[in-house]
Amino acid sequence: MVEIELIQSILVYGAISGGMYALLALGFTLIYGVSDVINLAHGSLFMIGTYIFFVLATPYGGIQIGLLPALILAAIFVAVIGAVTFRLTVHPVIGDPLSIMVVTISFAMIIQESMVLGFGSYRQPVPSLAEGLATIWGVKVTYSKILAFVASLALFAILMTFVTKTKIGRAMRAVSQDREVAMLMGINTEMLYLLTMGISASLAAVAGMLITSSTAGVTYPHIWPQQLYLSFAVVILGGLGSIKGSLVGAFIISYVENTFVFAIDPIIADILNLPVGGSLSGAVIMATMLLVILVRPKGLFGKRVELEE
Known about the structure:
Elements: H1 2-35, H2 42-57, H3 67-90, H4 97-119, E1 124-125, E2 133-136, E3 139-142, H5 143-165, H6 167-177, H7 179-184, H8 189-214, E4 218-219, H9 224-238, H10 243-272, H11 281-295, H12 305-308
Helix pairs in contact: 1-5, 1-8, 1-9, 1-10, 2-3, 2-4, 2-8, 2-9, 3-8, 5-6, 5-8, 9-10, 9-11, 10-11
């Protein structure tokens, strides 16, 4: 009976986390697929979204405009921040991967210290988007987690449709395949890069608000590195630039993590006399990524699979 409940918990929480991880990684893989930019500031955009949401949706900012308007405005603000930052700092070094990584990680550190100066280094509350509990297959899950899961998959489906069915999406795929040919066809690559970065940044912000509101319920200046390595693990495992790969990679990472937390970590804690809490889950995630790329160096789906179709 205990084993059945354990399996049910792993399956349910693995699915919910997988959906949210897919949204977290989606913006990261989109900007790489179109412009070859490995954005190491992705986690900081996640963090900015949570702080703007905190200011707009709690008494701290003196505004409290409502949860949904706060979420939408935060996504728009972060999209603008991402696009402007890309134009001023990343665009001048396009084509130089090392410079891009230096610029984006520097931006992330600047944002981190700015949040420390503005809000302090302690944790700030992120309001829950929904209250109450539901039971799924015998497992109790908060409505906030269910909402985050549904919203994540809906946004994923919307972006897939946008990339494959719209004129701008086709332009993104053309630039992904051959930038010079796309320019000869009349595609304004600079504007397309800015739009892609804006979408990528807004997706990171929405992921931040959904994930923090449905899990820990707090944000803090040093939250971004964990989100960066998690999104990095997902996209590397699935294949850099592959949208479908991000979805598959997200669920693989999620189920590996939840299997470890629910089934393996308690055994390790009992043997070593340590507290239970999945403290090694981060190492397990990275080990999973390493094992996959040792077998398939380009990830499960390779580079830009969807953008080539």
